């Protein structure tokens, strides 16, 4: 492979080999032209250190080199262009100069990313105006080169993260989240602007194909491991979120890894908006753009089918929590609480029963409590409230959770409240059940609960997206996720806990010590 010659796009053979490319790459990274006053000649040396200006030149030159030859040399790699990008990115991040100037290099990459994406969008706006008449070939070449350069930067950032996840701190400090969001948004808009111009549409690939998956993975990791500021979340373009929703297919993780990556990114962004809403003062709260995009048009049906398919199969503790939090939002939102079909709700009940019967009361306390927090509004507000599907099984598992010696006090409290729901009452047991769970106030009886979110809102229930984990008011969300709050009159389980620090399925409850907000998980 190292001695093979690459074939140029026009069919002509290039004399550049893989070894020849690596020689050029190493020269860019490590060589410096220096004027020797003693001989009056320019010589090439390998300096011990590198200044910021020199590092800037190295970064730009190296990206240009990789971008120019990516398809040419990538065709000689067994794994194709992706294998080439992986090797090229690895060579750069292993460079001692890069490591010594890591913060500067990440900032430079983000700056280049933003500039390139904005330039492409500006070019597209010009094409939209005059169709680029007379310059079609040059414009297509520019757009193609532009995309390849963005792809090169994406590989460098992603491989850098996998090799050293401490760069996450640098990404957070220098607006990595919003820069990556804006980059993908630019290409989303670019694709839209050029879709009716066939002479250009093939020059811009879908920004969410596999070549751009590194940016999606980075966004997911940033959201999973840090708290995004309200300012950054507010700056996310709804176009980006809508494109993600519209591009989802109904498939599992194993069937389509890229699709699952988009799915879990939407899940974690929804959580970021929920946490932002809860942790902000009422006047500073921002709408949940992820949830609002989800319920727009046909997006909900597409997303909910994807969620149902994966919810029944997913074993990852974190992903389960994220999916449950979306369900919580759906069942506590006035306009969406009855959007799930009855058959889908029955599937959810079956899954909930299976999980609650299988999970360990000690090791999986946090996940069990999250299920209980979602079951409550599901049985109160969805069409299940008038059904008796698996009532006996639900009552049985709730009684077990409420009485088992190993159950935590929070689990007993949450399961006891579920037992007070009208949907789990039997006609001849009203007084008996209320006496059995005397720790729950009789004023909280399921017989007194509102029949719908609208009724609950009119009765003065708390109208917010996410409540304090210690606040037991029912959460009823408005369409904008920005409702006002009034004094609660009834008590209900708090919303699902933030899933930060949740580990594998076998994680101990001690691993879930503190929620993102700083309050201890009950």
UniProtKB/TrEMBL annotation:
GO terms for molecular function: Arp2/3 complex binding. GO terms for biological process: actin cortical patch assembly; actin cortical patch localization; endocytosis. GO terms for cellular component: actin cortical patch. It comes from the Eukaryota. InterPro entries: SPIN90/Ldb17 (IPR030125), SPIN90/Ldb17_LRD (IPR018556). Residues 256-393 form the SPIN90/Ldb17 leucine-rich domain. Pfam families: SPIN90_LRD (PF09431). Residues 474-522 are annotated as: Disordered. Transmembrane segments: none annotated. Coiled coil: none annotated. Residues 474-486 have a biased composition (Low complexity). This is SPIN90/Ldb17 leucine-rich domain-containing protein.
